[in-house]
Design brief:
Elements (H helix, E strand, L loop, with lengths): L9 H26 L3 H25 L11 H12 L3 H12 L11 H25 L2 H25 L4 H37 L4 H5 L10 H7 L4 H12 L14 H15 L2 H16 L4 H4 L4 H27 L3 H30 L1
Helix pairs in contact: 1-2, 1-3, 2-5, 3-4, 4-5, 4-14, 6-7, 6-12, 6-14, 6-15, 7-11, 7-12, 9-10, 14-15
Length: 367
């Protein structure tokens, strides 16, 4: 006769039901994401959903008659499902990655070791999927996020420093507008030059087919063609063999992996350029997002406020914006959005606090 499993405690029942609800929600998230994907990515997401279904069955079996009515999943997983259904972006995958990484199964004896191992693997799978989206966003999006952050911090510091000296509100507003325009133009110019230079460097490093045209006229006894292939990283033997092929001594393409394959090179170059972003795109993003960040500190002055109340409101508005931008950066990088947001807040308000103190000092000296 098979012994009956011990009756679970109320605490266990509550915890298991919560796990069950979360597993159901996670499976739904992956299925929703799969609806917006094709090919390999779709198959991977459906595979993750199937694994979550196995986890569901584990908790259903343990609960038995205690399963009761379905519980609501955690707020995080509810939000994930909503975002997956309506957006299906890299942000959802980044959040899902963090959810998998925070699995409690490793420390819960009621979860099997296989389930705990599954969650660790799931985190890496989702990380791989999210990385593709991060690479696509890493060019222009990087310029946009950091441009907005720079605008927030620099113009808040400028406004608070000028405002602390006690000058007229119109002077603070004019300084803020000047800082907005100067910073936005500077950021745009810097991003354009940076990205343009990087793309030109990549293009200059791409091998060409000039060796094909020069090969017939080369001196076989002092074959500089070998140097070309050695410079590209081939061994002495491979370089000599490839040079002989180019000279027409060998008619075979004995090792195609050593050939310059233009179609593959073009694909690789396109991927590299996609990750870097376009020069005009980066410049435009930097200008617009720096300006959008820099306008926030001067909003109170634009609507007619002045003095300390306007400065304090500027600090509050910028603080909220810094929390948001820091959270987005943390989310995309796979780090804690809360920690990154608080770090951005501390850095931004710290810089503004220093300029405010200097403004008070110089304002008092002038007075």
């Amino acid at each position: 006769m098979t012994p009956q499993a011990p009756t679970p405690t109320p605490a266990q029942i509550k915890r298991w039901r919560k796990y069950l609800a979360d597993e159901v929600a996670e499976g739904a998230v992956y299925r929703e994401l799969a609806n917006n994907r094709q090919g390999e990515e779709r198959a991977v997401l459906l595979g993750l959903a199937e694994a979550e279904t196995r986890h569901e069955e584990h908790w259903r079996t343990l609960l038995g008659e205690h399963a009761g009515k379905p519980m609501s999943p955690s707020i995080r997983r509810t939000m994930l499902r909503f975002l997956a259904r309506h957006f299906g972006s890299v942000f959802v995958l980044a959040l899902a990655q963090r959810a998998e990484g925070n699995s409690p199964y490793a420390g819960d004896t009621d979860a099997s070791r296989q389930m705990a191992a599954d969650e660790l693997v799931h985190e890496e799978v989702v990380r791989g999927l999210a990385t593709r989206g991060r690479n696509q966003l890493s060019g222009n999006f990087r310029a946009a996020v950091f441009g907005a952050n720079d605008g927030l911090v620099s113009n808040l510091a400028l406004v608070m420093g000028i405002g602390a000296t006690g000058v007229a509100t119109s002077m603070v507003l004019f300084s803020g507008i000047a800082g907005l325009l100067a910073g936005a133009l500077s950021m745009a110019a810097g991003e354009y030059v940076s990205v343009r230079s990087q793309r030109e460097l990549l293009s200059a490093s791409k091998p060409t087919q000039v060796t094909l045209a020069a090969a017939p006229d080369l001196d076989l006894d002092a074959n500089e063609l070998v140097l070309v292939y050695k410079a590209r990283g081939m061994s002495d033997e491979d370089a000599a063999h490839r040079a002989a092929e180019r000279m027409g001594i060998y008619s075979c393409d004995c090792n195609p992996s050593l050939s310059l394959q233009p179609e593959l090179a073009d694909i690789a170059e396109a991927q590299e350029h996609e990750e870097i972003g376009s020069a005009m795109g980066a410049a435009s993003s930097s200008f617009c997002f720096f300006a959008s960040g820099a306008v926030i500190p001067i909003l109170p002055f634009i609507v007619g406020m002045g003095g300390t109340p306007a400065i304090m409101l500027s600090a509050v508005l910028v603080g909220i914006a810094l929390l948001l931008t820091g959270g987005v950066v943390g989310l995309l990088s796979g780090a804690s959005p809360t920690k990154r947001g608080l770090r951005q807040l501390a850095i931004g308000l710290g810089a503004a606090g220093i300029t405010y103190a200097l403004g008070l000092l110089f304002g008092g000296s002038v007075a």
